[in-house]
Amino acid sequence: MSKALLHPDAEAIDLSAVLDALRDPIRRAIVLMVSEEGEKRCSSFLHCATKTNLTYHVARLREAGVVRVRAEGAARIVALRREELDARFPGLLDAVLNGARQDPSLPRLAEPA
Amino acid sequence: MSKALLHPDAEAIDLSAVLDALRDPIRRAIVLMVSEEGEKRCSSFLHCATKTNLTYHVARLREAGVVRVRAEGAARIVALRREELDARFPGLLDAVLNGARQDPSLPRLAEPA
After folding, report:
1. In whole angstroms, what is the distance from residue B66 CA to residue B64 CA?
2. Residue-wise pLDDT tens digits, B34-88
3. What is the ipTM of this complex?
């Protein structure tokens, strides 16, 4: 697909949108995974949700400015916008990720190797 | 009213619920106000929203564990659960409040004296 994926500029990232994106545990699981392991294909998150739901969740994160998504052939690659988020809302991402790490109900992040 | 107001125990405060509570700018304005000025009557927030909407927003904050509400005669007094929130999700509240402070669209907090 060549359809452009819209991303908010760093200075336009909105606190309400970021909190709204991060309030969902599946979205926090995705963010935690790309935070800890670097950029990932969307298909890496299939243990968290169905493909349709993943497409939705990744789009919510992208539209809020939490992740950047690019196409690589047929695959979508998801990367965390950490520097931009940290610059705009210092400490917010780490606080949420620390909370996510301690949440036993979060979808498992690391697939068996 | 003598109806008991339910509050989650500190250890039961849920990250999804807290982020959901804080994603609304009116609720962030309320939290910022009690953070900076100490406990407040619900009526102190009437510049932010109608009475009906305030009742709803304060209940959302209370149910999420962000504020504690008590009756004092006919008035409802709202206090921030800062220590419990900071213990459970270190840095989260400050990061959100710092973002709120920089938001020019947030309802005005300080009433003219």
Report:
1. 6
2. 999 999 998 888 888 888 899 999 999 999 999 999 999 989 999 999 999 999 9
3. 0.90
**Which amino acid makes up residue B91?**
G
Please list the residues that pair with A76 across neighbouring strands: A71
Task: Count the domains in chain B.
Answer: 1
Give residue A45's identity as a one-letter amino acid code: F
Min Cα distance A106 → chain B (Å) is: 11
**A86 in contact with chain B, both atoms CB, cutoff 8 A:** no
What is chain A's alpha carbon radius of gyration, rounded to the nearest angstrom? 13
As a residue count, chain B comes to 113
Point out the residue among A23, A89, A98 whose CB comes nearest to the CB of B19.
A23
A26 exposed, middle or buried (CB, 10 Å; 0-12, 13-18, 19+)?
middle
Residue A2 lies in a domain: no
Residue A69 is assigned to a structural domain of this protein: yes
User: Given B20, B88, B95, which is nearest A92 (Cβ)?
Assistant: B95
The encoded tokens of residue B82 equal: 């800062």
Report if residue A57 sits inside a domain: yes
Query: How far, in whole angstroms, is CA B96 from its chain's centroid?
Result: 12
Domain extent for A79: 10-99
Q: What is the CATH number of the domain that holds B17?
A: 1.10.10.10
Helix and strand tally (H, E) in chain A?
5, 3
Mark yes or no for CB contact B19/A15 under 8 Å: no
Q: Helix or strand or coil: residue A12?
A: helix
